[in-house]
Amino acid sequence: QEEEKPGEEKTILHVKEMYDYQGRSYLHIPQDVGVNLRSTVPPEKCYLPKKQIHVWSGHTKGVSAVRLFPLSGHLLLSCSMDCKIKLWEVYGDRRCLRTFIGHSKAVRDICFNTAGTQFLSAAYDRYLKLWDTETGQCISRFTNRKVPYCVKFNPDEDKQNLFVAGMSDKKIVQWDIRSGEIVQEYDRHLGAVNTIVFVDENRRFVSTSDDKSLRVWEWDIPVDFKYIAEPSMHSMPAVTLSPNGKWLACQSMDNQILIFGAQNRFRLNKKKIFKGHMVAGYACQVDFSPDMSYVISGDGNGKLNIWDWKTTKLYSRFKAHDKVCIGAVWHPHETSKVITCGWDGLIKLWD
Predict the structure, then answer these.
(1) Strand partners, 218
(2) What is the pLDDT of residues 282-317, one digit of tens each?
(3) Quick one: 48-350 is in which CATH superfamily?
(4) Smaller CB count within 10 Å for the chain: N or C?
């Protein structure tokens, strides 16, 4: 067993001025972009995106995930197999603002804290790192010598010092950032943990694993209070909570998206099954339009697929990337803007 050394962290600022004429950094939410990014209500009605309007290029290998800045969505964070993490503008000149360097192997997952001031990265070098979004500094690093496959901050304002990571050794590990210590382990899965999603006003979280099960946990209680596994189930390596908090959309490895209730019984909704795409063993992200009219997902052929939520009909599909289209997010304030990322190293904006 070779001992993994944490990569030396550094950061590159790609813009001349860190602050604007009023002394505000890029974390400040812009107001002149055509939509109100501070709004707390979703757009009334969403429409199908039709064409590519921008490409963010800069990663030298495949992009593994994209995450929008919490609430406003004015910044975009991406992580890649080139071991780097990049922060981009979603509006204006759509520049690359900063690169975060510090992992020695491909970065698998990223997660903003609730305010967006910090984010966590999880990489195949077995390290989880906490970064400052504004200065680019690496604040701390965590490892239990296993590979972290997914990472999530506890979204509660009063628990921003706690995060959970799903590991290659079947455990979900909870760290306290303040002490750097592991404070809880959820050890019930029988295979590597793929996803963690908070539900029920963040009192619980749902995890999926290579063991093909879905488990529901009360926060800080290391025994799953719900275990969902059917002989017919496949593993579900990508899970997203719907904007209204009622449904979990799960990308299932048998080329369908399954919908589970997210409130108490976690029942499979047999009336809503979305298919017609080929995921071919990739953990393609699923997302909803903010008004809940559409479900979107990339696939193994690089296509973006858009279904009607009510009828489950596949409405639209088009080639988005040359290789796997792994990530797809619908902008929370926009009627038709979707961001995709792929293993061709590109991030694209569709409208």
Answers:
(1) 204
(2) 999 999 999 999 999 999 999 999 999 999 999 999
(3) YVTN repeat-like/Quinoprotein amine dehydrogenase (2.130.10.10)
(4) N
What letter represents residue 116's amino acid? G
Q: In whole numbers, what is the pLDDT of the chain averaged over residues? A: 97
Long-range contact pairs involving 208-216 (C-beta distance under 8 Å, separation at least 24): 208/235, 208/236, 208/237, 208/239, 208/250, 209/166, 209/170, 209/235, 210/235, 211/170, 211/235, 212/236, 213/189, 214/250, 214/260, 214/266, 215/188, 215/189, 216/266
Q: What is the DSSP string of 7-58?
A: PPPEEEE-SS-SS-TTS--TTSPPS-SSS-TT-SS--S------SEEEEE--
State whether residue 153 is helix, strand or coil.
strand
pLDDT reading at 110 higher than 80:
yes
pLDDT at 1 over 50: no
Q: Can you tell me the distance from the alpha carbon of 54 to that of 347, in angstroms, rounded to the nearest whole number?
A: 8
- How many Å apart are CA 139 and CA 227, to the nearest integer? 36
Distance spanning both ends of the chain, measured CA to CA: 48
At 31, list the tokens: 């107001």
Q: Residue 93: helix, strand or coil by DSSP? A: coil
The Cα 160–Cα 112 span in angstroms is: 10
Q: Is the pTM value of this prediction over 0.85?
A: yes
Query: Could you count the other beta carbons within 10 Å of the beta carbon of residue 323?
Result: 15
